[in-house]
Amino acid sequence: KLRNIYAGYDGSDVLKDVSIEVEEGTTTCIVGPNGAGKSTVLRVLSGLLKPRLGKIIFDGRSLVGLQPRQILALGIVQVPQSHSLFPSMTVRQNVRMGAFTLHDNSLIERRLREVEEMFPVVKTRSHEKAGNLSGGQQRLVEFARCLMLDPRVILLDEPSMGLDPKTFKQVVETIQVMQSNGRTILLIEQNARTGLSIANNGVVLESGQVRLVGSHTDILNNPE
C-alpha cells in the first residue's frame, strides 16, 4: 500500500499525493503519459528514492527509510526499464547474480535449475556472454535473474520497450506464466492496452497524480 506519497528529485515533487494498493497474487498495471511519474513509483517502492511524505506498507511493515538491500530481502525485486545485464559476463553468471544475497549454494543451484526450465535461453546460451543476446533474450534473462530470489513482489518497468512484435509476445507470455505461479506483479507499460489486458487491475497516472483506479476492464472501457 502506498498512502499519500509525495516524492521527486531536487526538491520538486513528481508524485503528488499518490495512493495505490496492490493485492497479493494479482497483477496491477500503471499506465500514463511520459513524465506522469510511473517509474518514480517503482523507485520509491524499491528504496532507490525516499518519499518526502507518505507511507509505504508491505505485509504490515513500513518500507519508508529501508535500504534497497533490506527491501530486496523482504522479497520485492525490480526489473528495470533499461537493459541491466553485465554484457561481458555469461548468461549463467548474470542469472546467478540474482541470488547474490543468498548463501546456500544448494538452494542457488536448485533455483537455477528451476529458472532454466522456465527460460530455455538461460540453459541453451548459458556460457555465452550476455551482451551477445538480442534485446528480447536479454529481457528474458533479466526475468530469470529476478526469480532467483523467489520474490513475493515483482516490479516490471516497461518490459516491452524496444522489442519487436514476436519477442514482445514472448515477454507477455512469460509474464502470464509468472502470474499463473501466483506472483504478485506491479507492471508499468507504455503500451496501455496490452499492459491492462494482462493485468487484473489498472491505475492511470497523469502529472504525478492518480486519475483512475479500477479493474482492467473498467479502465479499458473508460472513455477518458
Description:
- The protein has a six-stranded mixed sheet, with helices on both faces. The protein has a four-stranded antiparallel sheet with strand order 2-1-4-5, covered by helices on one side.
- The mean pLDDT is 92.
- With 224 residues, the chain is α/β, with parallel strands linked by helices.
- α3 (91-97) packs parallel to α6 and α6 (135-147) runs parallel beside α7 (165-180).
- Helix content is 36%, strand content 25%.
- The protein is built from nine helices and ten strands.
- The chain has helices at 38-45, 68-73, 91-97, 105-118, 120-124, 135-147, 165-180, 192-197, 216-220, and strands spanning 2-9, 12-20, 27-31, 53-58, 61-62, 76-79, 153-157, 184-188, 201-206, 209-215.
- The radius of gyration is 17 Å and the shape is globular.
List keywords for this structure.
globular; 10 strands; four-stranded antiparallel β-sheet; 224 residues; single chain; alpha/beta
State the major sheet: 6 strands, mixed
**What ranges have pLDDT less than 50 throughout 5 or more consecutive residues?**
none
Radius of gyration: 17 Å
Report strand %: 25-35%
Order of helices and strands: EEEHEEHEHHHHEHEHEEH
Q: How many DSSP helices?
A: 9
- Strand arrangement in the largest pleated sheet: 6-7-8-3-9-10
Q: In total, how many beta strands?
A: 10
Intertermini distance: 25 Å
Structural class: alpha/beta
Helix content: 25-40%
pLDDT averaged over residues: 92
Write down the overall geometry. globular
Sequence-ordered SSE layout with sheet pairings:
Elements: E1 2-9, E2 12-20, E3 27-31, H1 38-45, E4 53-58, E5 61-62, H2 68-73, E6 76-79, H3 91-97, H4 105-118, H5 120-124, H6 135-147, E7 153-157, H7 165-180, E8 184-188, H8 192-197, E9 201-206, E10 209-215, H9 216-220
Parallel strand pairs: 3-8, 3-9, 6-7, 7-8
Antiparallel strand pairs: 1-2, 1-4, 4-5, 9-10
Helix pairs in contact: 3-6, 6-7
